[in-house]
């Protein structure tokens, strides 16, 4: 897996933002929408700040952009502060000129008997948009991408999953306490992610050990990010700490 190493997360985020901007402009020139796959969590916050800056200061437009988010907690109302729906609107969508109709985020509010159908239609919407041109990923300390926890099948599609306890603990800071962290999530699957034409995985700080396993270890469903070794157009964008365990 090719890696790009930067001194700070901010520099790494600028690199990713530039690639996104280039894609948007190319697609604009061709008269077709740019289809982005987006992630949440602490890692891409500096990326979204840079995209908002490019929109405000450099006129980068999102009018021709279609987005699909990787995941959402289940069950959780979208208006909850901790929902990824809220996160995305706070950090990006409310601050740029994207058409709300072009935003797709898995719905954490549906009754359980409607979830399967929703997941199938999410997959279909991605296909109808022409597939994801560029997928942004973070990585969990256990190697998860999206919320595909260790053991997720390489063939998995968008679905309801149980969150690992380590993931619930890592994300507890967003909630009042661990008991309030939802036990499930809807996530794109590994196969959904692998279908993206281009993938950029971002990691900063303490992710060094799992980055080394993902890049240099065996391809195994026990380390979901290691499966990215089988994608032909993926780059890991790292800061020096996250690259520190690579040989
Ligand atoms: C978020 C997502 C997760 C996070 C991962 C890292 O949409 O899909 O895989 O990218 O849990 O989270 P942070 O960035 O908070 O360390």
TrEMBL record:
Family the UniProt entry places it in: Belongs to the glucosamine/galactosamine-6-phosphate isomerase family. NagB subfamily.
Active site: 71, 142, 144, 149
Residue ranges of every copy of the Glucosamine/galactosamine-6-phosphate isomerase domain listed in the record: 10-234
Its biological purpose: Catalyzes the reversible isomerization-deamination of glucosamine 6-phosphate (GlcN6P) to form fructose 6-phosphate (Fru6P) and ammonium ion.
Lineage, top ranks: Bacteria, Pseudomonadati, Bacteroidota, Chitinophagia, Chitinophagales
Protein name according to UniProt: Glucosamine-6-phosphate deaminase
Coiled coil: none
């Amino acid at each position: 897996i090719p890696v790009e190493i930067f001194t700070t997360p901010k520099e790494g985020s600028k690199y990713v933002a530039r690639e996104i901007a280039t894609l948007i402009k190319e697609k604009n020139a061709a008269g077709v929408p740019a289809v982005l796959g987006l992630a949440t969590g602490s890692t891409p916050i500096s990326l979204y700040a840079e995209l908002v800056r490019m929109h405000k200061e450099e006129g980068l437009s999102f009018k021709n952009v279609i987005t699909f988010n990787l995941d959402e907690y289940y069950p959780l109302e979208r208006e909850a502060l901790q929902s990824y729906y809220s996160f995305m609107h706070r950090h990006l969508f409310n601050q740029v000129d994207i058409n709300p109709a072009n935003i797709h985020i898995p719905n954490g509010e549906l009754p359980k008997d409607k979830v399967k159908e929703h997941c199938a239609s999410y997959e279909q919407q991605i296909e109808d948009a022409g597939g994801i041109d560029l997928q942004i990923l973070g990585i969990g300390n256990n190697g998860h991408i999206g919320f595909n926890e260790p053991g997720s099948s390489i063939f998995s599609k968008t679905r309801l999953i149980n969150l690992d306890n380590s993931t619930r603990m890592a994300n507890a800071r967003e909630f009042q306490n661990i008991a309030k962290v939802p036990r499930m999530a809807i996530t794109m699957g590994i196969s959904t992610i692998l279908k993206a034409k281009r993938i950029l995985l971002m990691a900063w700080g303490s992710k060094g050990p799992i980055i080394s396993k993902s890049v240099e270890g065996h391809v195994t469903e026990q380390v979901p990010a290691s499966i990215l070794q089988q994608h032909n157009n993926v780059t890991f964008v790292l800061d020096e700490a996250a690259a520190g365990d690579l040989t």
